[in-house]
């Protein structure tokens, strides 16, 4: 029953969030700020993670298929496929759920316990729309760019690790990453990213918006935001993969 | 004028308000007093629509707030200014931006006029040259004054103040009380102050409603307050040493 209560309240919050904004110009300004806060400021961690992720994928692939029957370019091919199909969209989204999701829940939760959301409501401002909508739009717009950068850096990280350790030649790796490329796989990855961005923003905002209590409860909301976002992302990842790839 | 009729509110099994009826007059400082946990803040939150009562009505100029559609409610809310216990200023906005916020959201004036209006409000609460500071850089008293400036930015018809003196020293409390009184007269607002500070009650209270155990226990004018024979009201009023001395002095006279 509790789960149904939360699902129902989540959708009611979404309805409130997407109702008519008071001043579109102010929402637009806030959306740009959110793109910077949630997206651009996550670039560092995304870049670092992607380079090392690509490097590890390359080394692990090579050590697991070290057979004379398998051609050397397969390492580059496997690194590209794993990166584009799964690692960049899903792992980066899970990382962003940790960084961005906790940030969203803590910010909105603090506003709730400090009565700032009540202040917005009393002024006649649609608090859900004003606080949450720019975060949803900002995340859904900026996250695909982060994931595209991640794809590039991950494949590049694989290249550096392959060449640096000498497990694969530059020619073989470059041949592998170009072999049998299907552009739809990038589209599939970006669709997943947009859906995951929506999940991160809305699940985290829901946790923050309904925080009751004080600073301890803000911390709890923040933790829940990360945990529930990750769980929903993993379930939706499976559903989307089945729907879009089979 | 705001009228509350038969208001009842409960949270789960906890009955917080029971059949509260009261009239809050225009151009006067109406005070809701009572002990902590008596239900006075819940009453105010029901009045501004933050809580939905199980029974009863809140009438703004005769129109039931809880029967209005969302657009009508937003219209009424734009006529309400509220000062919160913790000021509730937006942390990420500067002093000037906080005061300009409701204007940016709802006013149709050009930006220069908005800025001038915000400056007027800040000047009214005696906050000058603090435009660029963030709420965290202000003292508690200053935050309250900026909160008042934001509350009056839209020329409200109704002003709600939730424990405006909490956490303030006696001198700053007097400044805030005087400010609320002056604004009430100047803007002819229906002002509702929720407080348990007897000094504030004696300084500014005009129409006083005493809430006890979620019920309206007593209502009257401030001059009748000290002469009431209501046992619970007297226990509340004369709980502090200072007020007991006042009582003793009254008896001697």
> Strand percentage of chain B, roughly?
15-25%
CATH topology of one domain in chain B: Rossmann fold
Structural class computed from helices and strand pairing of chain B = alpha/beta
Indicate the radius of gyration of chain A in whole angstroms.
21 Å
Q: What is the helix tally of chain B?
A: 10
Percentage of residues in helical conformation of chain B: 40-55%
| Oligomeric state of shown chains | heterodimer
What summary fits the major beta sheet of chain A?
none
Task: Briefly say what this structure is.
Chain A is an all-alpha fold. Chain A has helices spanning 2-17, 24-39, 43-64, 74-113, 116-123, 127-165, 170-178, 183-209, 215-245.
Give an overview of the whole structure.
- The complex is a heterodimer of chains A (246) and B (253).
- With 246 residues, chain A is mostly helical.
- Chain A has helices at residues 2-17, 24-39, 43-64, 74-113, 116-123, 127-165, 170-178, 183-209, 215-245.
- Chain A has one domain.
- Chain A is 85% helix and 0% strand.
- In chain A, helix 3 (43-64) packs across helix 6 and helix 4 (74-113) packs antiparallel against helix 9.
- Chain A starts with a helix and ends with a helix.
- The relative contact order of chain A is 0.18.
- Chain B is built from ten helices and ten strands.
- In chain B, the strands form two sheets. In chain B, strands 6-7-8-3-9-10 form a six-stranded mixed sheet, sandwiched between helices. Chain B has a four-stranded antiparallel sheet with strand order 2-1-4-5, covered by helices on one side.
- Chain B is globular.
- With 253 residues, chain B is α/β, with parallel strands linked by helices.
- The model of chain B has no long low-confidence stretch (mean pLDDT 89).
- Classes of the chains: A mainly alpha (246), B alpha/beta (253).
- The A-B interface holds A 22-23, 26, 110-111, 114-116, 118-119, 121-125 and B 45, 48-50, 73-78, 80, 82, 84-86, 88-91, 101-102, 104-106, 154, 160.
């Amino acid at each position: 029953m509790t789960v149904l209560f939360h699902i129902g309240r989540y959708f009611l919050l979404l309805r409130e969030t997407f109702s008519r904004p008071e001043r579109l110009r102010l929402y637009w300004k806030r959306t740009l700020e959110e793109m910077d806060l949630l997206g651009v400021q996550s670039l560092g961690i995304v870049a670092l993670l992607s380079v090392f992720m690509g490097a590890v994928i390359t080394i692990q692939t090579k050590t697991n298929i070290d057979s004379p029957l398998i051609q050397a370019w397969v390492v580059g091919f496997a690194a590209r496929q794993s990166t584009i199909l799964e690692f960049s969209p899903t792992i980066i989204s899970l990382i962003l759920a940790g960084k961005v999701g906790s940030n969203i829940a803590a910010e909105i939760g603090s506003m709730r316990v400090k009565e700032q959301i009540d202040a917005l409501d009393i002024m006649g401002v649609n608090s859900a729309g004003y606080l949450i909508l720019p975060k949803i739009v900002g995340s859904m717009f900026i996250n695909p760019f982060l994931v595209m950068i991640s794809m590039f850096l991950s494949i590049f990280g694989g290249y550096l690790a392959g060449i640096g350790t000498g497990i694969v030649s530059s020619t073989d790796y470059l041949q592998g990453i170009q072999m049998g490329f299907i552009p739809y796989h990038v589209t599939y990855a970006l669709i997943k990213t947009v859906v995951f961005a929506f999940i991160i923003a809305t699940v985290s905002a829901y946790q923050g918006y309904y925080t009751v209590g004080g600073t301890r409860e803000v911390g709890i909301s923040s933790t829940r935001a990360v945990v529930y976002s990750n769980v929903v992302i993993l379930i939706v990842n499976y559903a989307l993969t089945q729907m879009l790839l089979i | 004028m705001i009228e509350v009729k038969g208001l009842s509110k409960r949270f789960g099994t906890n009955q917080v308000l029971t059949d509260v009826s009261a009239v809050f007059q225009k151009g006067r400082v109406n005070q809701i007093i009572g002990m902590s946990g008596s239900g006075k803040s819940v009453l105010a939150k029901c009045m501004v629509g933050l809580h939905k009562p199980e029974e009863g009505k809140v009438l703004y100029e005769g129109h039931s707030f809880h029967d209005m559609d969302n657009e009508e409610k937003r219209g009424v809310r734009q006529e309400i200014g509220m000062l919160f216990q913790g000021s509730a200023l937006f942390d990420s906005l500067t002093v000037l931006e906080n005061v300009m916020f409701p204007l940016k959201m709802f006013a149709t004036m050009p930006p220069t006029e908005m800025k001038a209006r915000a400056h007027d409000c800040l000047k009214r609460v005696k906050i000058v040259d603090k435009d660029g500071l963030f709420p965290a850089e202000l003292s508690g008293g200053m935050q309250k004054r900026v909160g008042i400036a934001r509350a009056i930015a839209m020329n409200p018809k109704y002003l709600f103040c939730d424990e405006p003196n909490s956490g303030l020293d006696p001198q700053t409390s007097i400044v805030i009380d005087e400010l609320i009184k002056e604004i009430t007269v100047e803007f002819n607002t229906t002002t509702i102050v929720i407080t348990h500070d007897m000094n504030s009650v004696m300084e500014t209270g005009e129409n006083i409603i005493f809430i006890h155990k979620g019920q309206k226990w007593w209502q009257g004018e401030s001059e009748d307050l000290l002469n009431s024979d209501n046992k619970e009201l007297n226990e509340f009023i004369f709980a502090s040493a200072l007020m007991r001395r006042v009582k003793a002095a009254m008896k001697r006279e």
